[in-house]
Amino acid sequence: PLPRPRFGDLRFPCAVAVGTVGPDSVRLWLRSDRPGPHRLEVWPLDAGNSRRSVSWHFTPAEDADGTGTLLYPDGFPGEPPLAPLRRHGFRITREADGVLVGEGRFETFPARAEDTPPVFTFGLLSCHQPFMSSGDVFPASAAMLEAARTTLESHDARFLLMCGDQMYVDEPRALSLFSPRFFRRAGVAGRARLLECSADEVRRLYQLRHRQFWDLPGWRALQAGYPSWLMLDDHEVVNNWGAEPEHSGPAWRRLDQGSRAAYFDYQGSRVLGPCPAGVPDTFDFSFDYGSTGIYAMDLRSQRRGGEQPRVYSPEQLARLSTWLDAHQHSRAVFLVLSVPMVYVASWASMGISLLRSHRGDARDRWTHPWNLPDRDRLLGLLLAHQRRCPEQRVVLLSGDVHLGCAFAIDWLGDARGTMYQFTSSAVTHLTHGFSAWAARHLPRTELLLKVEDGPAARLVRMDGVGDADHNPYGGLNVGVIEVHDRGAHSTVRFKLVGQDPRHPDQPVTVFDTGEL
């Protein structure tokens, strides 16, 4: 078994991860605690001695905690492009002392839509919080990371979507940066609590938090072994970030600036690349895998609650609209929403908001009155797209809710068509009490979705195949999405994979829709 370091042990001076991949290039992320000459080696895994080697001077920004990215081969003049649809290994070493920064693998993408494999698979996960209050790692959480890696390998996954909460600043509570007792251990001179910190101080604290949460071999192996596209969610800032009116205050603005900068250092930069002008206003992104398109919305960076609430900016919705127009001929499109559209009915959301301890959770849902206008605008855009492209599979992918589940959204009346929502959460975060109960039961309360001044849709919890019929599923899980090319259109298939109770590092498929 792999070692399970305690929270704060920090055996993490160096690391690598695979970011965006194209038909002929790859963006690699690294952290190295010593700048200077570094060497990258890249080789196709199916060819023995055709190893390429380049050297460069790694000079991370002073405030980036030793992190940075490189784009190969584009960033190295004279290097030939990589070949499409080919598996590669890579290794980064430090030339001065020979230290291995890290190694991993990736597969390049198809060069054209017509080159898309007849079947391809990718992974979906969210919510990485493996720690007990003592700082020890839950054995089940460490084992689930091994089960997830085995799952992705056995399904020949081409890439991985991480749709939020890749680390938690506020859990477990005893180790929360918002806990005065724990914050005193952070040693920020002259500060008694996190909200007194400057943006630069917040950035340093959140950078350290990333290293503390990512100091698990299983977690780092996933990131080094698969091209990963990551999206921000609330716990990378604070629980229910942006949904509370007070988050617009000056102290929270400093927290926003520092936390998002740290997120960009460790996550966003490997998707968006360097941003000389500073941290982007929003982290939404898109990419294509052959004939399939994927767009991820950022539901946190521009969110606000209160008198003028919004979940996303009009400009981001306009970018999505333009992207959908350009993808009318794609076989399938996936929209990543860190918070699932279908989860809890409006009446249940209002009821939960009366519970003071869970008021923020209710305000975070799409069905809260503050969020309904943005929800309906987004649904209206997707419905209009489906009417133009009736043969195209349209799928919403989500995390956040510590639950795996799948829904069909069947439009009624003349607005016929079906959209799917697939959620995978959590990969390592074990929950108990009201949160666990709510995750298992609230999805059963939402039966009908009604767009204001528009059509309605019937919400159907999907049946599974054979014994793989646990929907919803409340255990630790990773999602698997298969896309099948059927000529004029594609079909999709969703699987939730959990753990064997007797051998928790071994995966078990707990839910499988079959082809849709």
Automatic annotation (TrEMBL):
Q: Which Pfam families match?
A: PhoD
Domain PhoD-like phosphatase metallophosphatase per the UniProt entry, residue ranges: 145-429
Q: Which Gene3D superfamilies match?
A: PhoD-like phosphatase
The protein's matches in InterPro entries, at most eight in alphabetical order, are given as: Metallo-depent_PP-like (IPR029052), PhoD-like_MPP (IPR018946), PhoD-like_sf (IPR038607)
Check the record and name the PANTHER family matching this protein. Answer: METALLOPHOSPHATASE BINDING DOMAIN PROTEIN, PHOD-LIKE PHOSPHATASE METALLOPHOSPHATASE DOMAIN-CONTAINING PROTEIN
Q: What is this protein called?
A: PhoD-like phosphatase metallophosphatase domain-containing protein
Species per Swiss-Prot/TrEMBL record:
Pyxidicoccus fallax
